[in-house]
Amino acid sequence: MRDWTAIAAGLKIELSERMKQTLEGLDKTMLGLRGLIDWQEEPILLCGVPPSEDDAE
Amino acid sequence: MSGGGMTLIQAAQALRSGHVSSSELTEQCLSRIERLNPSLNAFLTVTADAARAQARQADEERRAGMDRGPLHGIPIAHKDLFCTAGVRTTSGSKLFESYVPPFDAAVVERLREAGAVMLGKTNMHEHAYGITCDNPHYGPVRNPWDRERIPGGSSGGSAAAVVAGMCLMATGSDTGGSIRVPAAYCGVTGLKPTYGLVSKYGALPLSFSLDHCGPIARTVRDVAVSLAAMAGYDRRDPNSARGHAPAPLQDLLPPAEVDSLAGVRIGMPENFFFERLDTQVDNAVHFMAYRAQDLGAELVALRVPDGTQLNVISQVTLLVEAAAVHEPYIRKQRRLYGEDVSTLIDTGRLIPGVDYVQAQRLRRRAQGVYRSILKQVDCLLVPTTPIVAPMIGQAEVAVGGQAEAVRIASTRLVRGFNALGLPALGMPAGFTRGGLPIGMQLVGRAFGEKELFRIAAALEDATGHVGRQPELTD
Asked: Is residue B302 part of a domain?
């Protein structure tokens, strides 16, 4: 598990207990979900297809 | 019947037949705003003079034989994160307290072109980042069914304004349930359309890949005609969907009476969505499913991927994207943020980039699984929230014998559909014994809004939940 206190200190972010619990919960689930990732697939992030030149003014 | 008692469709018919003018409808709404807004706090800005001028123009156009469609002359409101040229757009924040955009958001533009009359801008959760609408800068929006309760959020001002008859339709945005939760808590109908169907240009963002813009109104048909006006490709929005022009209005709008759902397969998840619900919510949503069955639909029991995991994928995406949106402001203007919002932004700043990318991979996978599920059924029928509207200031709620944060309880059944981008229609499913609204969602295939409207309209016609309005005194 990540050391959220150290990460927050590094970024000079005040870490409340509630934030820490949220981050730990998310971290734990994300770790558990790694088995479902298709490592061959390139993910589509935000705008996967840039606007074509036809769209320009 | 006054504008406050009419649905949008009824008002449109009255306008076309000459039984009422846009000016009369607009005055009725302005009068209700003047009377009710001091207690409900649904509007942040009322543009009465401009509304009167727009209504006069609509009446003149109609007298000259022009008909822009069902929204021509209809008084509406915009959530205060849609940019409006010359009219303050706060996003419910202190940060944008004095921001007056020089342009209109696409949604505002389209609705104006359809002839709608803008009454003003509605209150919301600060920066659309929360579900209570307990706004630290402008005061809480109050639920018209019980003013000590939240209306839900973040589009709570829009939902409260619609159910209180202050306008006939209002725009909203939905990043993690922000149209559907207030629709459920206020007893109105709201659509989170398919991602990309409605342009986000000019909508102040919260999360680039999760934000959706849509309409909130009293009935399914009101929402359908509003969507027809709002939807369509817009090159100014890089995520606007090409090749998915909205169906023509005559196709999108369900017939006046839909009395059969024969041949429709409705998915009823056996896991996640019906776990840990308030008993009255559970009963009401099942009642709606059985009404669908009575109308000829087949109820199909099925299992869906773990909703908690999908919520985490959605939450990681939201936290990181919202942190990126607010990064330029939070560092230097932190004092202008409410505590709950700044805490969420800080949380997002701490999540490693690798988690964000993995969340997008997992999201893609979940989209594929739901695509397969929605090949077996035409839609899913699930509750919108496991609870009814909590009290203002309430932090926790007991659900199924367990204490749960109000924010988590309110969003756990809606959030995942933002990550999937699927259309989700929130509509009334009934009322508790104490008279509070209960909401349900119909979730369909991407760009399958037309089918959703038809199924929802049949259920609306078969039950008496829609059209109920709270008794409101000053």
From this structure: yes
Asked if A43 lies within 8 A of B360 by C-beta distance, the reply is yes
- CATH value at residue B248: 3.90.1300.10
CA gap B86, B360 in Å, rounded: 38
pLDDT single digits (tens) B154-187: 999 999 999 999 999 999 999 999 999 999 999 9
* Residue B277 placed within a domain: yes
Could you tell me the sign of the dihedral formed by the alpha carbons of A37, A39, A40, A42, in that order?
A: positive
Is B178 known to be catalytic? yes
Within-domain flag for B209: yes
Q: CB A46 to CB B350 under 8 A?
A: no
Predicted complex ipTM: 0.86
Q: What is the pLDDT of residue B255?
A: 84
Kindly name the residue from B178, B199, B226, B342 that is annotated as catalytic: B178
Number of domains in chain B: 1
CA dist B213 → B37, B100, B174, B205 (Å) = 24, 21, 6, 11
Domain boundaries, chain A: 1-29
Residue A6 backbone dihedrals phi, psi, to 5 degrees: -70, -40
